[in-house]
Amino acid sequence: MLLRDAPAVEYERPVVEARGVGADDRTVAALEQAKIAALRVRGVLHDYRRRESELTALYETANDLAGMRNLDQVLRAIVHRARVLLGTDIAYLTLREAESADTTMRVTSGSVSARFQQVRLGPGEGLGGLVATTAHPYVTANYSADDRFLHTEPIDSAVAEEGLVAILGVPLELNGQVIGVLFAANRRERPFTQAEIALLRSLATHAAIAIDTANLIDRTRTALAELNAANAELTARTEEVERAADAHDKLTDLLLRGAGTDDITAAVAELIGGDVELLDLAGDDAQQSRRIETADRTEREGTEPAADSVPAAVAESLTKGRAASRNGVWVAASAAGNEPLGALVVRRPTDLGPAEQRILERAAVVAALLLLLRRSVSDAEHRVRGELLDEVLADPGRDPETLRQRARKVATDLGRPHVVIVADAPQADPHRLRAAARHIAEVRHGLAGVRDHYTVITVPGDGAAEIARQVRADLRGAVGHPVTAGAAGPTDGLATFPPTYREALRCLQALQALGREDEAGVSEELGFVGLLLAESRSLESFVADAIGPLIDYDAERGTTLVETLAAYFAAGGSLTRAKATLHVHVNTVSQRLERISQLLGTEWQQPDRALELQLALRVHGLLRHGVDLGGDLGGR
After folding, report:
1. Is the peptide bond between 490 and the residue preceding it cis, with omega within 30 degrees of 0?
2. Fewer CB within a 10 Å sphere, N or C end of the chain?
3. Among 402, 404, 394, CA closest to 456
């Protein structure tokens, strides 16, 4: 059924048939599970096909626009493609007038009202005026009832005559300025999804670039007609424009093929030469601008530019909305409204020509789109991981199946054993600590969040101590400050996540109280302190960890090392008093203590270790005589 893409209702048939022939409950339940899994796969496949269809349509749109040279033809193609891709009743485009801040209707597709086709929007008037003023997309499910924007009689009457109800508008931005608005609208109420908004924004980006290219070509043709004497210069200009258009095609093709930032920087380095790097201006430290990817195509020549050249050029580029140069460094920065996104930095021994500057600017827009998409996806996933962690640690029994399904969407399997790590770094930047924790959770297919003012990470695995040390080392490397981490686990099902978290938290607090900052550990490594911290550690396991080698040695060889150690402690460390208690020669006591050192290590007489051994001996004696100490300590 999956292969032939059968309708969803057909997936119910095997279950119905099984019930019809009297199949047992186990068989029916298995068929139900298979049906649910198959429907989930069918939904994923449908989503993939939808995304593939959208990408194909965007690719075709880019190819169509790249081949068009007439502005009106470009605008009609954009509006028609927007209407088809979003499946709306009407699509239209307004452009800002050169002499005022008003936007006027330029092209429509599906419109039946003459008044609507001539509508004019002042700054802030109507949904379109709001989009043009703020440079942000807006959507309304019911235009007439929406009070977020200024309603005027001419605009409202034109919208009413067209019969529009639901409207989505996105800005057309060119070089940091809004040049118009692209709309998709329905004549009935309809909620537009985030995917549809993103799709229309992609079309708007292509539209702005295509409009810019079409305007450049129009101006070039006009100049050629008017200035025959400058034919050679205009020919060179045309070649530059064509080169920029070819670069635009290549970058657009990379974008539509799902290229990464390294592909963009490599393409720019190939097109204009030099060393190219991409800066993420939306990172935690915009002053230092973290490097994302670098493409080295030519060997750098000359002296290194001044250290402040890049930040100054970035600021100038953001202010001008164009490429800027400082001390031989060219920078093209892109922003979404007032929020900087990314900047392409080019270093080469020669200056950039006009076409190369335009290539750099267009590449910066493409790179910024990639950064924005990656950040949006990452932010959404991190938010889901944090919310899911809160629910898992708060009340996992409320709806376990829903929790498991949500976890699978972020590549996390809550059915697997997990180690819970609680970390604290008082000297570190909390934003950096949380970002590092989210990265670790994403890479290791776990969860991360903040709880009780501490950073919490869950990681699939069963070696709590080793995983805790690895995670602490990764966090410390990311924040550059001491990090203390307590861990517990592995978990055994959803219900064990809360107690495992509590044990990890107590372990962290114990490490800090013991002065063991900048370490990672588990309760088992804290001796008798760990016995008090553990949620479910048994007395027997504590005794086995402390004096297990002595008990096993006595059982195998019939010796009395456990009794000797107890007598030695009871005698206050005196060999003479211990030999009297044991009724043996003092040399025998000394030999037994040497054997104990071989089995437990020479540090067993250190104060902390000695205290742990004495407690273990007392507990062992009580357990051996059948005294009920309450079993596991988790319920005390």
Report:
1. yes
2. C
3. 394
Which residues, listed in sequence order, are joined to residue 487 by a DSSP beta bridge? Answer: 421, 522
Half-sphere exposure of 577 (CA within 13 A, CB side): 10
Adjacent-strand bridge partners of 420: 458, 488
Per-residue pLDDT, averaged over 173-184, amounts to 89
pTM of the model: 0.39
Phi, psi of 329, rounded to the nearest 5 degrees: -110, 125
Residue reference for tokens 């003479």? 576
Residue 5 contacts by C-beta under 8 Å, 6 or more apart in sequence?
42, 45
- Which residues are within 8 A (CB) of 486 and not within 5 positions of it... i.e. 6 or more apart? 421, 422, 468, 504, 505, 506, 507, 508, 509, 510, 511, 520, 521, 522
| Sequence-ordered list of residues with C-beta below 8 angstroms from that of 610, at least 6 positions apart, any chain | 569, 604
pLDDT of residue 371: 74
Nearest-Å Rg of the Cα atoms of the chain is: 35
Express each pLDDT in 599-625 by its tens digit: 888 888 888 778 778 777 877 776 675
Give the Cα separation of 442 and 411 in Å (integer). Answer: 8
Residue pair 127/92 in contact by the 8 Å Cβ criterion:
no
Nearest to 421 by CA among 471, 380, 386, 383: 471
Alpha-carbon dihedral sign for residues 156, 159, 163, 168: negative
Q: In what order do the strands lie in the sheet with 324-326?
A: 291-296, 275-280, 339-347, 329-336, 324-326
pLDDT tens across 282-308, in order? 654 333 333 333 333 333 344 444 445
Taking the alpha carbons of 50, 51, 53, 54 in that order, is the dihedral positive or negative? Answer: positive
CA distance 245 to 279: 24
Burial 505-516 (b: 16+ CB within 10 A, else e): bbbbbbbeeeee
Q: What angle, rounded to 10 degrees, do the helices at 126-134 and 153-162 form?
A: 120
CB 10 within 8 A of CB 1: yes
